[in-house]
Automatic annotation (TrEMBL):
It is found in: Cytoplasm. GO terms for molecular function: 3'-nucleotidase activity. Belongs to the SurE nucleotidase family. It is an enzyme of class 3 (hydrolase). Binds 1 divalent metal cation per subunit. This is 5'-nucleotidase SurE. It comes from Jannaschia ovalis. Keywords: Cytoplasm, Hydrolase, Metal-binding, Nucleotide-binding. It holds the Pfam family SurE. Signal peptide: none annotated. Its cofactor is a divalent metal cation. InterPro entries: SurE (IPR030048), SurE-like_Pase/nucleotidase (IPR002828), SurE-like_sf (IPR036523).
Length: 264
């Protein structure tokens, strides 16, 4: 198996080293792991692509490249130019922090898996939830490191990947606990924290200029039963199937009643 890995925390992020180990275990002795990751941190860029300016590529080792671009750019570069041969799987992460609930919408980690799906390649985003039960561990990525390869293998072997149009991709979040305390894997929906919106925090510099920091919200608030944040906070690895089609189909009927002229 030939696997392309990337992330949004940057080429030097510790979570990428965890993902490298996961990918090597999944690929096996006869497989290949290729890395194309952002040269600088790209957290929060979602599915951004840089099509108005070129992206410089730096080869920093065998099958290892840094790209001055977004995670989605890295997937495009890997699939279209850098990886020698056909890619069987794209893995993105392991993100430092959860990409559950509303975080999913902003995540560059998710954006990379989304781009893989748009290119027709199976894609999985992996993120490590941080909390009081793992942040002080010698390796905060312990849950992802110990359970990542098995979770990926099970997804590759048994999960649905097809679709007539937009292909599926998967969002995996490892719980904020030590590896020994992981309760298992839960197939769940994306949750809604309700207070998970981003905001702004104004600050004034010594020069008198005003700046705004983008600020987040509390991450441990449980979401509804059967959703990602609740599963994670309760010690479960969450696996959520996703698709790039953003249509709200349950609203189409009412919308067509409001605009009845089209009969297509």
């Amino acid at each position: 198996m030939r696997i392309l890995i990337t992330n949004d925390d940057g080429i030097g992020a510790p979570g990428l080293m965890t993902l490298q180990a996961i990918a090597e275990e999944v690929a096996g002795e006869d497989g290949e792991v290729w890395t194309v990751a952002p040269a600088f941190e790209q957290s929060g860029v979602a599915h951004c692509i840089n099509y108005v300016k070129p992206s410089m590529i730096s080869k920093i080792g065998p099958r290892r490249f840094a790209l001055e671009g977004s995670p989605a750019d890295c997937v495009l570069a890997g699939l279209g130019e850098l990886v020698e041969g056909e890619v069987d799987l794209v893995l993105s992460g392991v993100n430092r922090g959860n990409n559950a609930g509303e975080n999913t919408i902003y995540s560059g980690t998710i954006g990379a898996a989304m781009e893989a799906a748009l290119q027709g390649v199976p894609g999985i985003a992996l993120s490590q939830f941080y909390g009081p039960h793992n942040v002080e561990l010698d390796d905060p990525f312990e849950a992802a490191r110990d359970h990542g390869a098995d979770t990926v293998r099970r997804l590759v072997a048994a999960a649905p990947w097809g679709g007539e149009s937009y292909k599926l991709f998967y969002n995996v979040n490892f719980p904020p606990v030590a590896a020994r305390n992981v309760r298992g894997v839960a197939a769940v929906a994306q949750g809604y924290r309700g207070d998970g919106r981003m905001g702004v925090t104004p600050q004034t510099a010594p020069s008198g200029r005003k700046y705004l920091w983008i600020s987040g919200s509390a991450q441990g608030e449980k979401t509804a039963p059967g959703t990602d944040v609740r599963a994670n906070v309760e010690g479960w690895i969450s696996v959520t199937p996703m698709r790039c089609d953003l249509t709200c189909r349950d609203a189409l009927g009412q919308l067509r009643d409001a605009f009845p002229d089209y009969a297509g």
